[in-house]
C-alpha cells in the first residue's frame, strides 16, 4: 500500500516548474519531477510519435530503453492505438509487453492526444506489483494535462 500522494500539490509544483513553453525542456523536467516525487519507480519517460504509428524514445529517467515501439506492440503501443491510459498491475501477464528493464513489474502509460491524434505517451514503470492505483492514474493524467497546457508541442509528421 502506497502512502497517499497529494497530486493537487504536485500539480501546482509542476505548473511552477514548467516556466518555458519549450517541449524538450518541459518534457525532460516533467519526467525528472515525477521520478523525484513518486516512490518506487524505476523508469519514467516520454515516447513521441515522430513517424506515423511509431513511438520514438524521448526524454526519460532510468535505464536505456527500447526504441522504436510500433503502435501494434506492448503497453505503450496499446495506449497510443486505443488513445486510452493503460494501467497494468502485472506486466508479465501482458503477452506482448516489451521488457526494457527486467525489474519492471507494473506500468502506467498515459497517451498524449491533441486534436484526436497521438502526440506521444508518458510511461511509468515500477518494480512493485500493482504499484499504480486509480488515484495515481487520475493524478498522473492531471500532470500530463498540465504538461500539455503549458507546452508548445511540435507538429506531428504530415501523415501521422
Ligand atoms: N514496457 C513498455 C516498453 C517501454 S519500457 O517499459 C521503458 C511496453 O510494453 O510498451
Describe the fold and architecture:
One of its GO terms (cellular component) is cytosol. Belongs to the free Met sulfoxide reductase family. It holds the Pfam family GAF_2. This protein is α+β, with helices and mostly antiparallel strands. It has one domain: Beta-Lactamase (2-Layer Sandwich). It is built from four helices and six strands, in the order H-H-E-E-E-H-E-E-E-H. Strands 3-2-1-6-5-4 form a six-stranded antiparallel beta sheet, sandwiched between helices. It is globular. Residues 43, 65-66, 69, 74-77, 97-98, 100, 104, 107, 123, 125 line the site of methionine sulfoxide.
List the SSEs and their pairings.
Blueprint: H1 7-17, H2 23-37, E1 43-51, E2 54-62, E3 69-70, H3 74-82, E4 86-88, E5 106-114, E6 117-126, H4 134-149
Antiparallel strand pairs: 1-2, 1-6, 2-3, 4-5, 5-6
How many structural units, i.e. domains? Answer: 1
Distance between the termini: 40 Å
CATH superfamily: GAF domain
Structural class, by secondary structure, is alpha+beta
- Radius of gyration computed on alpha carbons: 14 Å
